[in-house]
Amino acid sequence: MATSDNNRRKFMATTLQSVGLTALGGLLWSGYSDEVKASPLVLRPPGAIREEDFLTACIKCGLCAEACQNRDTNIDKETGKARPGTLIMAKGGDHKLIGTPYFIPTEVPCYMCEDIPCVPVCPSGALDMPSLLNEKEELDINKSRMGLAVVHKESCIAFWGIQCDACYRACPLLDEAITLEYRKNERTGKHAFLLPIVHDDVCTGCGLCEMACVTEKPAIFVLPNEVSKGKAGSHYVKGWEKEDEKRLEDAQSEETTTEISEKSPVDYLNIEELY
Ligand code: SF4
Ligand code: SF4
Ligand code: SF4
According to the model, what pLDDT value does residue 266 have? Predict the structure, then answer.
């Protein structure tokens, strides 16, 4: 009888242990997958490949963050000490895949180092050097597309008519990535607005503008390209652009025009405008 009780106790203990371990595993896994799922707003280092691929390519070695921390321009000239690096290696609770590099512009933006020390050290291809080469085959930080700065007009005080050009002046690609657009203030009739306009074909997503913004919560902020950019669809054409004209011709030769006009009257109007 005693032996059978002992066996039952052993069985119960083993079962509870397995249930406990399974539950713990499940908890850890759900925590892990939550971190992965919570990634769409993450900003990666220059040259980072598509987020989906980045998550599998990055081996979480931290070499990029180390190179960023040790970059020459990171030494405070006054104190001679190193400032915090731009790149943070994600840890539990950061809501990013643990061990992968990211940055938060309002804490430390990317300073767009000319030699881009974070990229050549990456051993896995998660940071893609060829994507940062210019026509002369030289590394060019201006080629990086870490994200895109977006202006929230309702909280940007320049749109209220108050003079502010903090983001414009902070931009390393001044007058290229951000320009100031003059607009008459119809309300007062006397004053003018000078509005910051971001150009998505030039903006690198470095976040220096976000860091410099004077409002309580930045009215200009960087979002990953997948989040900040829309997509018009291949059946909309810009009749004034040669490349698009060619695309239209190709589309017509493939006799897709009828199909397009059946899809939506708006598509039809868009194409009609070209004649
Ligand atoms: S380019 Fe940006 S992320 Fe790379 S080392 Fe320089 S500051 Fe750091
Ligand atoms: S160097 Fe490359 S592989 Fe290593 S953590 Fe940075 S991105 Fe990931
Ligand atoms: S993120 Fe801001 S500062 Fe950086 S390039 Fe774009 S507009 Fe300029």
Answer: 43
